[in-house]
Design goal:
Layout lengths: L1 H27 L14 E9 L6 H15 L3 E2 L5 E18 L2 E16 L5 E8 L4 E4 L4 H28 L2
Parallel strand pairs: 1-2, 1-3
Antiparallel strand pairs: 3-4, 4-5, 4-6
Helix pairs in contact: 2-3
């Protein structure tokens, strides 16, 4: 009988450790669960997004990514909202990370922007130098069309990261 009690005690400890191990990633990386009631405001209008770079269509991509991310996080996006978000994409750089036989083979993308949120009663919040907290890179040295397609995918990723950073800054003042 003693062996059975000890065995079930060990299994209980193992179960507890496994449960804590599963919860560790959720609570240790800064992730928090939030309710829409805890948002600083509930609706926002996305005004003009300017593209001050030479990279075409970034403003359209960011507008779509911002709309998606705002909706995903519980904000309503509509024209009649009291809070307004506008901004400028001021930097888009394609940097060479590595070369092989004098041909670039790996690149990264750096994007930065400045944004302003305004609201009722003179509310104003500036978000400066917002960009991706991650390195957005891609590899390629083949045909130009394939390289451009990879660049387009990487720039989409950088835009999504920027949108997530903007929305996070709005949520966690």
């Amino acid at each position: 009988m003693k062996g059975h009690d000890m065995k079930s005690g060990v299994q209980g400890i193992i179960s507890l450790v496994a449960f804590c191990w599963l919860l560790f990633p959720v609570f240790s990386c800064g992730y928090t669960l939030h309710k829409t009631a805890s948002l600083p405001f509930h609706a926002v209008r996305i005004d003009r997004i300017e593209n001050r770079t030479n990279e075409p269509k970034l403003q359209d991509k960011l507008y779509r990514a911002l709309t998606d991310e705002l909706l995903k996080q519980g904000f309503a996006v509509h024209e009649g909202a009291d809070y307004h978000l506008r901004g400028k994409i001021v930097l888009f750089e394609l940097r060479i990370l590595s070369e092989k036989s004098d041909v670039a083979t790996e690149y990264d993308i750096v994007m930065k922007g400045n944004f302003l949120v305004t609201g009722p009663s003179g509310y104003s919040r500036e978000l400066k130098d917002v960009g991706s907290p991650f390195i957005v890179s891609f590899s390629g040295s083949g045909q130009l069309t394939a390289l451009l397609a990879l660049k387009d995918l990487a720039s989409d990723s950088a835009v999504r990261d920027m949108a997530q950073q903007i929305v996070a800054a709005l949520m966690y003042q």
